[in-house]
Design a protein that fits this description.
alpha/beta; Taq DNA Polymerase, Chain T, domain 4; six-stranded mixed sheet; 25 strands; globular; DNA-binding; DNA_polI_exonuclease; DNA-dir_DNA_pol_A_CS; nuclease; DNA repair; DNA binding
Amino acid sequence: MKKKLVLIDGNSIAYRAFFALPLLNNDKGVHTNAVYGFTTMLQKIMTDEKPTHILVAFDAGKTTFRHKTYGEYKGGRQKTPPELSEQFPYIRELLDAYQIPRYELENYEADDIIGTLSLQAEKDGYEVKIISGDKDLTQLSSETTTVGITRKGITDIEMYTPEHIMEKWEITPDRIIDMKGLMGDSSDNIPGVPGVGEKTAIKLLKQFGTIEKLLDSIDEVSGKKLKEKLEENKDQAVMSKELATILREAPVKVTVEELNYEGSDDKKLKEFFKELGFNSLLEKMGETVEEEQDLQDVSFEILTEINDGHLKEDSSLYIEVMEDNYFNGEIVGISMRNQSGNYFFTLETALSSKAFKEWAADESIKKSVYDAKMSIVSLRRQDIKLNGVDFDLLIASYILNPAESADDFASVAKRHGASAIESDEAVYGKGAKRKVPAEEKLAEHLARKANVVYELKSICEESLKENDQYQLFTDLELPLAIILADMEYTGVAVDVDRLKEMKEELANRLDEMEKKIHELAGEVFNINSPKQLGVVLFEKLELPVIKKTKTGYSTSADVLEKLQSKHEIVEHILNYRQLGKLQSTYIEGLLKVVHDDGHKVHTRFNQALTQTGRLSSTDPNLQNIPIRLEEGRKIRQAFVPSEKNWLMFAADYSQIELRVLAHIAGDEKLIHAFNEGMDIHTKTAMDVFHVDADSVTSNMRRHAKAVNFGIVYGISDFGLSQSLGITRKEAGEFIQRYLDSYPGVKEYMDDIISEAKQKGFVKTLLQRRRYIPEITSRNFNLRSFAERTAMNTPIQGSAADIIKKAMIDMAERLEKENLQSRLLLQVHDELIFEAPEEEIERLKEIVPDVMENAVELNVPLKVDYSYGPTWYDAK
DNA sequence: TGCACCACGC
DNA sequence: GACGTACGTGGTGCAA
C-alpha cells in the first residue's frame, strides 16, 4: 500500500473553525465551537484520505525567525480572542485521544514544520496531503503533494494541485512566493508592493517569471506608475518574498516514519466527547446519549372520556401528526392544558366526545395552539371544527424572528425560555426507525408540549407588543392561517386524464430525443447525469469548457446555450432537459400527489419559513408551475375547477414590488410614473439611457427590465451581469445609472442600510422584521449580501404583507356577499380562485377592488385578471 | 441518507 | 482586493 502522510496546520484550522461556527457552549460554559469544528474537519480528513501517517503542527510562541527579517511581521494582528485561546488545550486533548502526534517548534511556524516534513516525505516516496486555512501553503504543492485549503466553513476543502494552481492563477506553485512578495499579505502584515494586487502580480509574473527577474528587467514594465512603485519598493518586494517563503529545512526533531497512525483511542475519545457535550459525535460512535435530565416532572392525566370539567376557556391545545404532511398522516394524540389541568387523549376519545367537539368549534372559547393551520386541517379531516384560535406559538415565534423559527417544537420552546422538553427525534426516532412510542411516553411528551404553549402565550404576546408586532400577529397572520387552512383543505382539482395523456406523449418524445442524443454522442449514457454528460461533451466531443463546478464540468443551461453553435447535440440536450423537467417534476410529480378521492391536490403553504414574509408551497409546490415557455405552460391545462360550470379566475398585481419601492422611497419620478400609468420598464429605460419614449429599443427595455428585477430581488452586479450576459463592470454601471436617475431610491437605499446597522433589523409596512447582523461584518461578501438584504426585504416583504392583507379582505368580502367562489392559491403576487360562471361578473368587480385597496400607498396598486375553464386559460 | 447539480416560479 | 453573490421546492444521480 502506498504510504500517505497528512500534515495539518493546527492553528489555522482552529481559527477557521472558530470563526466559521457560532460560539457554542457546553453545559459547563466552556466554549467549544473551534474544538467541534476541528473535530468534524479531522473526521472528514480521516475518512477521505485514510492516511498511513499524520501530524498536526502548531505555531510556538509569538516570535519567529521571520521577526528578525522584519520586526513588523504579523504586526497589527488582532490578538487571539480569549474564547478561542481557551479551546487550544481541548484541541490538544482531542488529538491525544485520536492518538495523532502534534508538534511545535520554538522560533518556527507551523508552516515551516509542514514544509520540512513534506519535503522529507516526498523524498521518501510518500503521497502527501497538507490541510490548512491559509493559501500560503499552496506553494508546497507538487506532483506528490496536494494542499487542501478550507473554503467556506470547515469541511469544504479546495484541493490545490499544481494543475489547479495553474488554472486558477496561471502560475506554478513555486511562483506563489513571488506573487505574495508583490501583492503582500495583510493578515501577516507582509507589505508587498503598494498598488499591486493579485491581478497585477500574476500579469507581471507571467511576463517575467520571478521577482528577481522582474527587478532586473524593470524597464520593460508597462505603465509608468506601476514601474515607479516597483522601483520604490524593490527591497520591500524581495523581503516580502522572503517572509512568504516557507522554510523546508527547519530543525524538526521528528521523522516521517515516526508519524505512522494506528487509530484512535476510542474509549478516551468517547470520554472527551462526553465532557464537551458533543452528542452528535458520540452517537456517530454508536453511543446512546442519555437525555439531559433536567426535564421536570410533569403531572398530567390520560383522559378516556372528556367532559365539561376538562374543557375551559384559555386552553392550549396540541395536535400531534407524525407525518409532516398532515393530509396523509393521522392524528396520533392530542393534549390540552388549562386551569383545570394537563391532559392527554387519543383521537378516538376526542371523536367520541360531543363536549369536546362543541368546545373546539366554539368561536368564543379561546385556544392557543402550535401551528394553527395544521391543527385546523388535521381536525377538520376528522370532522372536528376548530375555531377561536387566538394564539399560535409557531407563528408568534416566526414573527418575532423569522430566521430562528425552525419548524421544530423543542427549539422554539427553548428559545423562548419554556421549561425543558425532549426533542421529537428523541421521542419518535428518525428515518426508518421513526414510530409512535408507547402511549405513556407519547402522553407525557404531548402533555409537555401543551404545557409549553400554555406557558409561552403571555411571554410571546408581551414580546410581540414590545416590537409593535402584535397587530401583525392578530390581524394579519392569525386570520391568514385560517384562510390558508381553508385553501389547503379545499384543494385544487386536477384533470388526471389530461396529465396522463401528456405523460404518454412526452414519454414518446423523450425516447426519441434520447436515441438521437446517444446517436450524436456515439455512445449510450445517462443524459440526466451531469457527470456522464460532462464526459461526453467536454472529453469525447471536446467542446470548450465554459464553467466548472466544484465536482466537475458545469452543464447548466447557460453553459449549454453558449455551446449551441459548436455541436448539434447541445440543442437536443437542452430540449431533453426541458421536457425531462416537465415530465419528472410536473407531470409525474403531480400525479404522485393527487388524492384518490376527488382527484385533488392539497398543497401545504408554509407560513413560517421565508425570511421575507412570503409563503412557500409544498407537496405539491403550486407556486412554480411553468408559465414562461408554452410547452410547460400547458401543464396548467390540468388544473381545473372542482365543480361543473365553474371557471378558474386569476388576478395578479402589476409590478407590486416596484410600486412598493416608489412608496417607501418616496421617489417622485417613480411615483409620477405609476400615477401616470406608464410602462415601468420603458420608463426606466428612458431615464437610464436618457432617451424619449420613442427611442427606447427592445434591447434597452430588456436591460431596464433586468435592472428593475435586480432592484426587486436585491441581486448583485454579478447577478445582473449573469442575467444580461454582460460584464460585471457594465452591470455595476447600469445599477449606478439607475440610482442616479432615481435619487429618491438612492436615498432610501442609503438610509435603510444605516438604519439596519443601527437597529440590527429592517422592517416592512406592516412591521414584519428581518434581523441582519452581518450588516456590520468586516467580511466584504457577508456585508454586501447583508446590505442587499436590507434594501430588498422591506420591498419584497411589504408586497407579501399587502397580498396577505388582500387575502383576508377577500375572504371577508366573499362571505359578506354570500358568494360561492373560493380562493384556491396564492402565488406571491397573484390569487387564483374557482368560481361559478354566474359569479364571474361579480368577481371582475370585487377582486381588483379588494386587492387594489388592501392598503393605501402613495401610488395606485393595479390588478389584472382573467378567467377560463382551466388555469391555463386564465391568462 | 445526504449532497451536488439542475431547473421551475416569483 | 476580498471568491460568492434574490428566495424558495423538487427531481435525478451518486457515493456512503
